[in-house]
Amino acid sequence: MATSLSVVVSYNGRHGTDISGQAYRHGELVEIGARGVWSTPLLPGKYAFNTYAGKIITVPTTNFVLKWTKEQFGEHRLDENLSEVSLITKDAFEPVLPLSVVVHIDYMKAPLVVQPFGDIKRLVEQTLDPMVSAYFKNIAQTKTLIQLLQERSDIQRKSGEEMREKFNTYSLELQEVLIGTPRAANGQNSIEQILIQLRERQIAVEKVETYKLQEKAAIQERTLREKEALAEQQAKITTSALTIEISENEGKAQLARTHQQAETIQVTAKAEAEKVRLGGQGEADMIKAIALADAERIKATGFADAEKVRAIGLAEAEATEKKVAAFGGPDYQLNSQVLMRFAEAIENGRLPLVPQIQIGATGGGKGAANGLVEMMLSMLVADRIGPQTVPDAIPEPVEEE
User: What CA–CA distance (Å, rounded) separates 401 from 398?
Assistant: First the structure.
């Protein structure tokens, strides 16, 4: 049997003074030996007590459980008249809720618990049962049946916190509130149908989660395969990357060399141009000097040649004049020159000295035309004879009979 203590209610004795204090307004507590509820309980043990002079109320000193079920009750049978709490949910279901409450009574406060009701069982039935039932009915009206099933843990925690203060009002220490599974009243199967739907919904949710996990696993597998393939090709990729980098570096080096060569060529071209400019200017100056010198030399030479030609011309003229005078004068010299030209023409042209065909006059006798020799001889004879006077009038020809 659980350990318990006793609260003495004495019907006999002197009139005692209330020692409960101003805060306790449920009755009077008196000292031991006075008439009334003794403020000090009797601890576990054996005592000599006249049961006709008073009453002993047993109060458990350990934690005891109050069960709101018809089939079960606690060891002290304080809850044998309690039953499940009838609820009406937000969605109009009417389940019944089994629950259990763990309570502890401080042994020094046991008289305070007994005084208002005179009995612990009466306290449970008249105060705790309506209070607990009303609390959970209020909770059920704000929850649907599914919420009542799914949020049982939160409801249990919250009810323990809020009901603890109410139990303290009656000098009781609430230790724990335990909520059972709501079930249908009077054999109804509505809750079972809801549970079936809830199970099917959960199965659907689990299927969705399973499909997501399978999809994720497939993606992970594909990623793994890609990484494996990438690892296999890593050497080639590294080589290709190095080749590309080397090519880029070579291109940059070639570009730098090209820039350097271009700059070198540009500087060299500028130097050559400057050299050519300076050399051309020097050559131009030299050519100009040479041209000036040549011009001076040609000028001097021209003057000298002119003087020479003039002197030679004068000498030849004088010599020619003397030759002409020696050969008989200018007419003779002219005729000689003419005859020399005729002789050269005959020699070069191979002309006959005597004409091969002669055409005579009609009367016979002397020819009408003279040959080349005759003409030359006539010129010589005329030169020797000297100039003849031309008659003033040409005589008329005489016709012969």
Answer: 9
- Both 104 and 75 in one domain: the answer is yes
Asked if residues 115 and 59 have their Cβ atoms less than 8 Å apart, the reply is no
Asked if 169 and 66 sit in the same domain, the reply is: yes
- How many domains in the chain? 2
Does the pLDDT value for residue 231 go beyond 90?
A: no
pTM: 0.49
Eight-state DSSP code of residue 118:
S
Residue 153 and residue 126 share a domain = yes
Is residue 346 within 8 Å of residue 397, measured between CB atoms? no
Contact status, residue 206 vs residue 213, Cβ threshold 8 Å: no
Q: Whose CA is closest to 113, among 233, 9, 211, 212?
A: 9
Between CA 269 and CA 267 the distance in angstroms is 5
Q: Which residues 6+ apart lie within 8 Å of 176 measured at CB?
A: 101, 102, 160
First-residue to last-residue Cα distance in the chain: 223
- Residue identified by tokens 């006077």 is 389
Q: What is the pLDDT of residues 89-115, one digit of tens each?
A: 888 888 899 999 999 988 888 888 888
95-97 vs 85-86, strand pairing mode:
antiparallel
In terms of residue numbers, what domain contains 207? 199-232
Count Cβ atoms within 10 A of the Cβ of residue 120 and give its class: 0-12 exposed, 13-18 middle, 19 or more buried: buried
% pLDDT > 70, the chain = 81
How do residues 305-355 score in pLDDT, each as one tens digit? 778 888 888 888 787 777 767 766 666 667 777 777 777 777 776 666 565
Q: Phi, psi at residue 351, to the nearest 5°? A: -85, 140
From CA 30, how far away is CA 39, in angstroms rounded?
6
